[in-house]
Design goal:
alpha/beta, disordered N terminus, 19 helices, DNAb Helicase, Chain A
């Protein structure tokens, strides 16, 4: 941060606020406990000498040693940093005295700490601007520059400001009101059995839907999108495996209940196409937006943010995680960790459910029961930790189809293996293989549990 020509230097730091925080800490060690959660790093201070003094004061506090001008001076001298503050010992001691004189009391230490933190965030923004300027001026492909710029923007974290503790009894009613609002904001999946378990998708959630190939994950995503848009919610789908036209074709066949192979084989008649046209008209009423550019978390973040403003999208889907990349990483596992963390951040930032499809390891197929477990998630550590909700798609029919005496049931299970909000368990759906379509199981179905 050497070039500040485009920005007033006073916006980058407040000498008065930094001095007031340090002065308050010297004259009243008790205020350090209030300041530390707000300024956890010495980098929060702009001036190097202030960082050195802050680190020394925090060290004295943690080690439960006396804190005053004399102990601070001795600590700095022991660490060989006293003379470096202002050029020599005498000038540095004089400067410490000036810090103490800058505040009459420590009563406003928290107020000044907030100013210091705000200035630090200003510097973070300015640093990002400089990084972006450097990216623009460097040689390279335009797409690579765009991804680098999006990555810089996504790296800017908003830090929670406010008290570092709360008394539970005082916020009880506020929490109940927030819980009610959250319930009202939940987006039903449209699948009765599943909603009984998870009560829909909630804003800010990172949801993982996982399964082996041929389980119908993409079909389930499409059904969820169609169900959700019945309620006038706008849905964004990042389709990384299928083209937008192919996905629309599947959606139209889904709504018309026509086997897509009839179209592909030339068996479809005039009645079929009349039904397809009706379905296409119905699809016009559903606010589903498709994109094929979500190969990086930054691309997902950029489009989600833009379409939330312009199209009021309420939920986003990604099909699927293993097709995404995160730039340079030492291993695929580390790359998936980066992707997972960023997707979680996007869901929280934009306050919408972000539902991501994921493949499972082959070890599922090797087990006798073939039922997926959390450990079956590819590169499972970060995914298991970051996801708020983990749903597995399982169809017994698929695994037993070659058994001579087995009669297919047409039943699929959505296994809720993780749910931060509540219950885990199984939801049953009807799966129609010809349409790759899921639907509610009839209430009077004999095999229901």
């Amino acid at each position: 941060m050497n070039n500040h020509k485009l920005l007033d230097i006073e916006k980058l730091y407040s000498l008065e606020a930094e001095a007031a925080v340090l002065g308050s800490m010297i004259i009243d060690a008790h205020c350090i406990a209030k300041v530390l959660p707000m300024l956890p790093r010495s980098d929060s201070f702009f001036l190097p000498e202030h960082r050195v003094i802050y680190e020394a004061l925090v060290k004295l506090y943690i080690e439960e040693r006396p804190i005053d001008a004399i102990s601070l001076r001795d600590e700095l001298k022991t660490e060989g940093q006293l003379a470096g503050l202002k050029g020599d010992d005498e000038s540095s001691v004089h400067y410490i005295a000036k810090l103490m004189e800058s505040v009459p009391s420590s009563a406003n230490a928290v107020y000044y700490a907030k100013i210091v933190r705000e200035k630090e965030k200003e510097r973070e923004v300015w640093s990002a601007v400089e990084q972006i300027r450097n990216v623009v001026n460097e040689p390279g492909m335009v797409d690579e520059k765009i991804q680098a710029i999006q990555d810089i923007g996504l790296s800017l974290e908003t830090i929670k400001s406010g008290p570092d503790y709360v008394e539970a009894g005082k916020i009880g009613l506020e929490v109940v009101a927030a819980m009610q609002d959250s319930r009202d904001e939940a987006i039903p999946t449209g699948f009765r059995d599943l909603d009984r378990l998870i009560h829909g998708f909630y804003p800010g959630e990172f949801v993982l839907i996982a399964g082996r190939p041929a389980m119908g994950k993409s079909g389930l995503l499409l059904d969820l999108a169609l169900n959700i848009t019945k309620g006038a919610k706008a849905v964004l789908v990042f389709s990384l495996e299928m083209t937008e036209r192919a996905l629309v074709g599947r959606a139209v066949c889904n709504l018309a209940a026509i086997d897509v192979t009839r179209i592909q084989s030339g068996e479809a008649d005039d009645f079929d196409f009349a039904e397809l046209r009706n379905a296409a008209t119905e699809l016009q009423k559903r606010n589903i937006i498709l994109s094929s550019i979500g190969y990086t978390p930054e691309q997902v973040a950029g489009l989600v943010h833009r379409l939330k403003q312009t199209h009021n999208i309420g939920i986003a889907f990604v099909d699927y995680l293993q097709l995404m990349t995160a730039g340079k990483a030492e291993s695929r596992q580390q790359e998936v960790t980066i992707i997972s963390r960023k997707l979680k951040s996007i869901a929280l930032r934009e306050n919408i459910p972000l539902v991501v499809l994921s493949q499972l390891n082959r070890q599922v197929d090797a087990r006798d029961d073939h039922r997926p477990r959390m450990s079956d998630l590819r590169e499972s550590g970060s995914l298991e930790q970051d996801a708020d909700l983990v749903l597995f798609v399982y169809r017994e029919d698929y695994y037993r189809k070659d058994e001579p005496d087995f009669k297919p049931t047409g039943i699929a299970e959505i296994i809720v293996s993780k749910n931060r909000r509540g219950r885990v368990g199984k939801a049953k759906l009807v799966f129609v293989h010809d349409y790759v379509r899921f639907s509610n199981i009839p209430e009077n179905y004999v095999g229901r549990k």
